[in-house]
Fold this sequence. Notes:
Elements (H helix, E strand, L loop, with lengths): L2 E5 L4 E4 L5 E8 L2 E3 L8 E5 L2 E4 L6 E6 L6 E7 L4 E9 L5 E10 L5 E9 L10 E6 L4 E6 L2 E8 L4 E6 L8 H4 L10 E4 L1 E11 L4 E11 L2 H14 L1 H16 L11 H16 L16 H4 L8 H14 L2 H14 L24 E2 L4 E2 L5 H18 L2 H5 L2 H14 L11 E2 L6 E4 H20 L3 H22 E2 L4 E2 L2 E5 L3 E5 L8 H4 L8 H14 L27 E2 H14 L7 H13 L9 E2 L6 E2 L5 H24 L3
Antiparallel strand pairs: 1-2, 2-3, 3-4, 5-6, 5-11, 7-8, 8-9, 9-10, 10-18, 11-17, 12-13, 12-16, 13-14, 14-18, 15-17, 19-20, 21-22, 22-25, 23-24, 25-26, 27-28, 28-29
Amino acid sequence: xxxxxxxxxxxxxxxxxxxxxxxxxxxxxxxxxxxxxxxxxxxxxxxxxxxxxxxxxxxxxxxxxxxxxxxxxxxxxxxxxxxxxxxxxxxxxxxxxxxxxxxxxxxxxxxxxxxxxxxxxxxxxxxxxxxxxxxxxxxxxxxxxxxxxxxxxxxxxxxxxxxxxxxxxxxxxxxxxxxxxxxxxxxxxxxxxxxxxxxxxxxxxxxxxxxxxxxxxxxxxxxxxxxxxxxxxxxxxxxxxxxxxxxxxxxxxxxxxxxxxxxxxxxxxxxxxxxxxxxxxxxxxxxxxxxxxxxxxxxxxxxxxxxxxxxxxxxxxxxxxxxxxxxxxxxxxxxxxxxxxxxxxxxxxxxxxxxxxxxxxxxxxxxxxxxxxxxxxxxxxxxxxxxxxxxxxxxxxxxxxxxxxxxxxxxxxxxxxxxxxxxxxxxxxxxxxxxxxxxxxxxxxxxxxxxxxxxxxxxxxxxxxxxxxxxxxxxxxxxxxxxxxxxxxxxxxxxxxxxxxxxxxxxxxxxxxxxxxxxxxxxxxxxxxxxxxxxxxxxxxxxxxxxxxxxxxxxxxxxxxxxxxxxxxxxxxxxxxxxxxxxxxxxxxxxxxxxxxxxxxxxxxxxxxxxxxxxxxxxxxxxxxxxxxxxxxxxxxxxxxxxxxxxxxxxxx
Length: 653
């Protein structure tokens, strides 16, 4: 789990719940992780006693300064008689992590106090061949390997430092050397290295003293020295104040009228926008989650771009009025789309193809497979039309018409079963089944209708008619093959075995909201209402915690079978979207408001939303923050506000 991330689109720093730095991503968000998830330790020595802040002796409150990407952290150790208040941020436009540290003596006697800050860099995501040294040019510690440099400094200047070996034979690292309040390491070490600095603070009774600490990231020694000089010239305090002000202006730029929504919902809306920003690389990739702990259970992570997740995120940002962030995503999509007109499972931050598990070869039938989740292709085109329809920037979308829109639409038009007219089998959005899925079909309808709109925009009317016809055929086929008269609702999908044999999958799945969300059917259609009623009845978790599960008997990280699955923020908010879509009066909107309030109650104290919620305790489960969770909260809030305004203007819909 990660809390209080701070970043600027090229440098991202994350913390765990003990307030230890755990991930440092540079020069892309999500790539590379120069810590491999190992902690940077933070300790305090006072009058001969020492304590690391990860120990149970400390109480911790991890939050943000309101409406900013500046943390507000309070650490208290009653037995040590010390309180520490920290504010962390990344400079908005320079690759500098900056922290203000205020140390308070809680006792009525004078104290000799020392703060130790430890650095466990594993540059280029491995511990071999690093160098850590004290640099007399910058009067700072430097860690480097090849084209990655990190400079560590403080103001006032740190009193002691140590470089040494770590994770090698019996050498744990320089952090162990700090535990007696002294550092005795050398001025340079190579190989598997770490470093620690110490700041000495003599505190009078009840006195507070502060210092500033920063890490500069760059591609060369000259660059980090320049950044270090810049901090000194501007002063760390001014740097921190500027960044705090920048994010407050950024998140309030649209002066949104939140109508009757509570302060808690408004705060989470703004916090979600800020957290989403930390997960977006400046080159356009939108990362699912940057929480390296997941590698311990999965040997992989979430620091990838899934274009489906990205499409949902950019749509939320467009709804909230942040189109300048979404354009880079579409630019990247145009570069990475496959020559055949589809997107692969996932991508790295730099646009290269990421790890995957969708086979391109059927070992039984001895034939080629298309290794995709087709919704990832469809949703990019859907989101691009939604972007254009809102901002009407024809010069922007013109560049994508042939290279992205037509290419994807031609693929979707052809990638269909000749008999049923449904899309051919692909992987579902949860990535655990291959077949013909109702959600996927609905997204393809949305993507093809978006492509038809673009074709009309560029006066290709025959092409527009073709895409509309294919979309209509898929809708008709969904009605025939995917709506079950027996169950009185849409099926999750059809599971195929070989070329012709298939069986129905009647599992109730929260993703069935897609049948109305992308325009295949209206929210008021009885087929949709019956389906969403089943979702509400079967997937609402019947514990005090509440929320909506992904699907029946979901066993992914399952806490208890009795609950049927864990609550997912996105799935719960999708139900709110249905309430909003079919609302006729303000009273009809109340259920959606309740879900927005539920989400605020289940967020971490910092406002971070995880992927899932424990159905028994309400604790966060799986990765955090999950970008998709935050973007869905933003989108649902905007959908609510738009619908409420429409009802107010007409009396009722």
